Batch of 2 targets.
Target 1
Amino acid sequence: MKKPNDVILQTVTTVISFIIILFSINLFFAGHYTPGGGFIGGLMTAAALVLLLLAYDVKTLNKVLPFNYQVMTAAGLLIAVLTSAGALLFNEPFLTHAYDYFDLPLLGKTSLHTAVLFDTGVYLVVIGITMTIIQTIGESE
Amino acid sequence: MSLLHIAIVLPFIAAVFIPFLFKGFRNIHTGWFVLLVPLALFIYFIQYLPVTSGGQTVSKTFEWIPSLGINFNAHVDGLGLLFALLITGIGSLVVLYSIYYLAKEKEALHNFYVYLLMFMGAMLGVVLSDNLIVLYMFWEFTSISSFLLIGYWYDKERSRYGAQKSMLITVFGGLSMLGGIVLLYIMSGTFSIQELIGMSGSLMQDPMFIPAMLLILLGAFTKSAQFPFHVWLPDAMEAPTPVSAYLHSATMVKAGIYLVARMSPVFAESGIWLWLVAGFGLFTLFWGSFNAVKQTDLKGILAFSTISQLGLIMSLLGLGAAALHFDQLDENIYMGATIAAVFHLINHATFKGSLFMVAGIVDHETGTRDIRNLGGLVNLMPITFTIALIGTFSMAGLPPFNGFLSKEMFLLATLEILEFNLFSMDTWGILFPVIAWIASVFTFIYSIMLLFKTFLGKLQLDKLPKKPHEAPIGMLISPIVLGALVVVFGFFPNLLSKSMIKPAVEAILPSLVESGQEVYVNIYFWHGFTPELFMTLGIVLFGTLLYATLGKWQGIYNRIPEQFTINGVYDRGLEKGESGSFRLTEGVMTGYMRTYLLYIFGFFVAILLSTLVVRDAFSIDTSNLAEIRIYEVILAVVMLASAITILFAKSRLTSIVALGAVGYSVALFFVFFRAPDLALTQLVIETVSVALFLLCFYHLPEISRKEERMGFRLGNAVISILVGVTITLIAISAYSNSSVFESISQYHIDNVYKLAAGGNMVNVILVDFRGFDTLFEICVLGIAALGIYAMVHFRGVRRQKG
């Protein structure tokens, strides 16, 4: 399709999408205590990528972020399943999570939670599928 | 899990390694590895012989789904052990035979032996499970593995046809059997056969007793190829001969016999059982033997002969049920029928197994199984001839072989039933000896035909694809062993009586042996000048006469028109079923999204609205409502306006934007009602999906609404209004009926921090409390994405090719 030479959109997008991605990562990590989490974080990242797509085109995006989104989906699923199955090693039921508090440098007292690992899977799957769908349909035109 | 359980699943475990053994040891025939499994199992099961012959049983429990009463309970008694020994014993011989029959260079042995082992394990599971659901599971496993074995040479059209036929018929029977099992469970509350046996008295009073019995018998009859379900067995002969010898004579088809014997203590006191089992068995005996005579294929003759012999055993089991109506064990003559059934079961496995192997040898060495082309092989294949002679004479019921003894006992049982004065057996019962005698004459004819037309007469070398010679010794071992057993059991029948027949009979008729008594089994070789002996003489006389004049009366077989045969009915049923379901699918699946949505929403409305009405669940309670704020009113108006805009939008893009407006308004509502997580999700999803839709729909043509008929649009309007009304009603009722269920939110509020150390309830529910949901959800999403990817890309590929 014919691409309008939209300088303003392209310039703004470059900055905005970066901010959106940063924010989505924040959302993802904050998920356990405040609104957010893997699903929303993933969607928001995808939204940032969609914005880039709208401003530029599929080829440019692929050049800048050369991900294979099918592989990303598969990897996400694998992470989700493996982290859930991890509990089996400790003779706990599938999908049992563990957490504890640690004193980390810079961050101070932080709680670390295996649910985040599971959520990483969700995050990757959500980005992967959204981008797979959009890219597939976009490319086929 | 006990050793017994491991023994049952051992073939399955072994099957896993077969493909690796096949690939890894190319120059050793895979069969040699497989042979170890049945051999080891046979030796293992032999150890139980002293136990069961002492009247003891062994039970081992393995909890599987205890909350539903489904446990893998292995139960070894006389009957189960007899079958287990048949399965593993004949199994060993068949595997040994197959090593020489199937060439390792040409055949896909890894497939073959995996299926065979699967089948062996399934069969062991059937005969050694006490739990009906577990039994059913293994039962269907036998259907599936036999399907795979029959279709082993899947590039042949007849193989595929036979495999499908056997699958359709036996799985149909299996499913009805499952229905019977469920009914039994509803009546008794248990899946355990041993517990059911204890309850048989009270079960008989239940109105569901007869339906349960009929359903279970249907399962048994289809598996054991009883009339009119026998049609699958001849077509199953497309399988390799070792399979035919194993599945279609010695084991799988006997699963139905096993089931009838196993369920006898539960059902057999009913007169319907006696008539059904004995009647169907007897007619199958006649029909099978009658039709065997017209066959020209060696395996075809054997297939019909198997059908008829299975009918014989079945009818004996039915007649044996008469014994339950008498208490005294000593003078209970009807027990003889059950003894004969068990004895003939063993005999049939030996002589029919060897005969199938002989047929395989003839096929292997001459290249044909057609008796019109065969003949005069006696000089070329003397050993095979000897085995065939033993087998066929035993099958025909001639002395001194074991078939003679059980046939005499069978004839005696049909005579004795005349004195049975229940269920109008003393009047109609005269049919039993008459039909049995006629059927036996035909049995005699086809047995003689099988032997004479193959081995005697003129050798027609020009009609044989290969130059015949005696089979290699390895191929002969198995039939020789079976043939030897035929002779040994013929001369020393009491070798079996105490160790195998007695425990099996006691397991079939447990109520007769309760008070510490024992069944007395003594099979005489010479039993005097009795009526059954004269019947046998008559059979030989008439059989010889009819065989000699075969050409004169064979024409009657052509009198039956093709469309009235059961095969014709099956074929037409299959054809009609296929075309009918194709038309139905064509009609329902239009390929239009709107049609499917119509089905979905219509169903949805019908179910939910009718439930609301039937349950009288609709109520409005306004006492707890919050006040309505002005923003909410404005938002509602915006939502309504954008929803109506969609209805009248002329272009797709307008519709999408309006739809997005609805979505964003909903998100705002979430904000108002303090659900930031939902609002956030909704906003992001709305953004992404609107972008996506814009991307797709940009290229689609304008909407042309004028094409749609008014009636169609009216229908849509009705459905959508109904959906809206239903949802509103449900939401209001759910809110008003909040006293019925306590809200689960309090549990989450209490436990989110305590159990999962989280602050965000929604996220904790997603990853922790309901993690399974999320896991499967992302799986579904992943599949959907890959589906879209595949669809779009393959469309491209097809376009390029086209």
Target 2
Amino acid sequence: MTSVAEQAPTFDCRADFADELALLARTDERIVAVCNDSVGSSNLVKFREEFPTRLINVGIAEQDLVGVSAGLSNAGFIPFASAAAPFLTGRALEQIKADIAYTHRHVVLCGQSPGMAYGELGPTHHSIEDLSWMRAIPGLDIIVPADPAQTRSAVRWAARSGRPTYIRVPRFKVPAVTPDDAPFEAGRAVRLREGSDVTLIAVGTMVSRALDAAHLLAQQDISARVLNMTFVEPLDVAAVIAAAQETRAVVTAEEGLLSGGLGAAVAKVVAENDPVPVRMLGVPSFAPTGSAAFLLEHFGLTADGVAGAAREALGRV
Amino acid sequence: MSTVLSAPAPLRTDDVAARAYEPRSARLRAASPAEAAAELADISTSIRRDIITTIQSAGMGHVGGDLSVTDLMVTALWGTLRMRPAQADHPQRDRFVLSKGHCAAALYSTLASCGFFPRSRLSEFMAPLSPLNGHPARLKVPGVETNSGPLGHGFPVATGCALGAKLRGETWRTIVVLGDGEMQEGSNWEAAMTAAHYELANLTAVVDRNRLQQGARTEDTKSLEPLDAKWASFGWEVRVIDGHDHRAIKEAYAPSTTGRPVAVIANTTKGKGVSFMEDRVEWHHKVPTDEQVRLALEELNR
Ligand SMILES: Cc1ncc(C[n+]2csc(CCOP(=O)(O)OP(=O)(O)O)c2C)c(N)n1
């Protein structure tokens, strides 16, 4: 099997996040980084060296982090508020709702080490709920980059969008999957592979695994389309409807909780339009302890798992 | 390539250790601080060794904060509180809450020493499917009162434990240990107000004042001083001590004399006991090499 995930070089995208942010900060003085004692884990050490006054560390205080960022936005800055994803989204949920989204502040919330990247640290440190939580807040764009190029695009896009945005910055190492000419637009999925039997819709860590699954399925004469749904919000509704009309089943795959995440968003669109069987892969409940790689296997978030779900949805088991 | 692993057995009381714990702890609790100090110091040294080897086997861990909090924890669990390893959920138990939950290795080593579960299980720290998560989980580890790790949770929960005892007219007490960096979380100051308002004289909050947090010194990150005056102004009785002096710690854990909750500001050293880790921010979350483990154990065996 030609495995994208297992043979290609892989990247910790926090470096791309930080490099791109510094690049933008050089030409746009409004850009500031705000963090919570996470200068190192947000990869912002170099940013601080270059822009000592534009790295604001509020200490271990995530509600303060988001509130202060809203105030900085009020004062004309473009804050990139960065903290470990579980604490940024969960702890400051109401600040994100009231101070950022409902107030329509151009603040970029940067959730570091999302999903089960902090596997061994246990469920308190897993960020599997963030997509569900952020989706529940009206008016917030949600970007889940799948590789270094998309991480850079996400930072650039969010700096210019003028919109409240959540970016899930990957730490779990991912291969490069984005073609050079791929668009990066809100509400636009990237079609990574054509296919007519089933559509695999994935985000983040799961994109390369979905591509591998498509290879596996091809060996069984199943033609799988692969969509990288980089924007979970606004979702590419047209691409989901096309998938339901042009292929016979849809499989979603995400490194996150099943209730309320990407799968739920896709399933809603399918159900409201031209229903076809949908299978959702994700995390059903609090995860056990173990490395992120171990936990992805544990929950069947693998190429085999995606391929199996596709066969099941097509009734080919 | 899928790894099929069966979950390790749940953690159960180590009967031998628990039986040894009970009379020894009763004696240490009853002894004067001066009398108990040397013995508590010995226990602390053995816990520090367990911390080092536990982190070595896991290949991960928050060693600096573990070594910082050891003496505070050992004096609480062995020399002050009435723990019941054989009946971890006994309603009359005293409550110990580690709010700075990233220091799970110190907590697990100490709980194992008391007999809450076998010491041999420490080698499973952070292993796949292990009950010994990187952060303490109540449903997995006997002796863990509440989940902690996200900073700013343990103190409000401990305040509720103490308030519950007061409402029920029960005599058991609660000790909660906080990181100094953790004091930057607002939830802690909300709890501080609640505890003072309800005059929770049965609650002791201990700040592990090692002056370092994850990325830098607390005073360079977001300053906390004057910390004693802050607690006092929130209505607490404040005791400032050397957090590695077992005698001073045991004295500071004595019940409140003012009817107010007691805040112990324990001046400590992050990485205490291992010279090359002491007061160095990089040891917040770092794993010693085999050679460093050897050196550390050598220092701790002295
Ligand atoms: C809510 C929350 N934000 C951030 C973190 C990441 N984190 C883990 S330990 C730590 C530093 C804690 O410093 P301190 O409380 O002083 O503990 P100690 O130095 O004694 O280890 C941080 C920021 C966290 N666990 N929880």
